[in-house]
Structure formats: C-alpha cells, structure tokens
Specification:
This protein is an alpha+beta fold. The chain has a single domain, classed as Rossmann fold (3-Layer(aba) Sandwich). The protein contains 4 helices and 11 strands. The strands form 3 sheets. A 5-stranded mixed beta sheet has the order 1-5-8-11-6, with helices on one face. A 3-stranded antiparallel beta sheet has the order 2-3-4. A 3-stranded antiparallel beta sheet has the order 7-9-10. The longest helix has 16 residues. The protein is globular. It starts with a strand and ends in a 12-residue tail after the last strand.
Length: 208
C-alpha cells in the first residue's frame, strides 16, 4: 500500500524551540484561509515528521513538497546525492521558462508547548520518500509555463519526466528522476532534494 502526500504553496523557517536543528530554525509550511489570506500559524517539520511516522509500518510514503525551505521538511535521515554531470533533459524542459520568485512572508514563531523533540537520528528506518523543491536555505520558484499559467518548477519537471517515461514505456530509476530534477538548477536558483527514511538504492525503479 502506498500513501501519497503533495504540497505546493508557501514554506518558511521559524525559530527552533526544541534544539533539534543545527541552524536554529525549523522548516514549516504556511497556512492560508479559503480566500488566500495568511494565517498567523504554521505546521513545522517536527509536526509533519510526527504525522508521517504515525503511518502504519509497511505502508510506503511518497511525498512531494514544492515550496520554499523544504529540503528537510520531514527531517528524514538520508540525503541522496548524485556525483558527476547532470543530464540535460530537464534543462530543455525549462530553459525558456521565465520565473517569478514567491514573495517571502514573515510569520510568528511556533510556540506550541507540547511540541515533541524529534531528532532525525532517533527516527526508526521507514519506507518514506521525499522530493522537495529546494534546500532548507533556498526559495522554490514559480515557473511561468505560459502567459496565463504558472507552476512550481519542481512540479512542472516532475510531471513532464513521469509522463514521458510512461508514454515511452520505459522504467524510470530514482537516479534518473533525481538527475532530471537537478537540471532545474541550471536555470533557477534552487536545488531540488531527495531525502529518504532508509538508505534507498537510487538505482532501483521508481514506482508510485
């Protein structure tokens, strides 16, 4: 059984209150009202981690967070990297796309007195996969696909690569998917991340 989570919106950083962040900041997603107004509340990586790790053992969790400061939004222990040159295909998808950075907003600090300290090193290994739009200290970007249509750059490239692989009927390895996502950095000031809840072999096929 698979459990899929997708978030595209505003991300930010707030002061870390429980001492589990080396840089002193928790990553978080920001809440909006139905009419688009910002609520003075956030959901931190500590809270999201508690939710994710409450999923029953044996369920595969695939998550995509296309937002600013999302690199460690689930505080997963393994960061997957690829050495060497990056393939060019993803760059071809977005090289003609103009970008507009999301406006960075200020939010109050998370002050939940019941927030539980969740150190990554104390998390049990679980089948959790996270594709995030950028590193913790970076902002994710909106790609203008057409004069009237925009999309998060991560979402745009991810959908394009998955669609192309399906149409061609070819297997898509985690390595291939990550390489294509990293191609975003050739055009935009963000480096997508792949983090996992266990030591994933990125040379295996990607499956939903």
């Amino acid at each position: 059984m698979n459990f899929f989570i997708y978030f595209s919106g505003h991300g930010n950083q707030v002061k870390d209150l429980d001492g589990d962040e080396d840089d002193g900041f928790d990553e978080c997603i920001c809440l909006l009202t139905e009419d688009g107004r910002h609520l003075d509340q956030t959901i931190t990586d500590d809270m999201l981690g508690d939710i994710i790790y409450s999923v029953p053992i044996g369920v595969k969790v695939i998550s995509i967070f296309d937002c600013c400061h999302s690199g460690s939004i689930l505080d997963l222990p393994y960061v997957k990297k690829i050495e060497g040159s990056i393939v060019q295909s993803a760059y071809r998808f977005i090289k003609s796309v103009k970008s507009s950075k999301r406006k960075r907003e200020k939010f109050t600090e998370s002050t939940d007195p019941n927030s539980k300290k969740t150190l990554m090193r104390n998390r049990p290994e679980r089948d959790i996969i996270l594709f995030s739009g950028c590193k913790d200290g970076q902002e994710s970007t909106d790609a203008m696909i057409s004069p009237t249509q925009s999309s998060g750059a991560l979402t745009f490239v991810l959908l394009h690569v998955l669609k192309e692989a399906r149409e061609k009927g070819i297997p898509l390895l985690y390595r291939d998917l990550l390489q294509n996502l990293l191609g975003i950095h050739k055009q935009l000031e963000q480096i997508p991340q792949l983090t996992t809840g266990y030591n994933l072999d990125i040379n295996q096929p990607f499956h939903f």
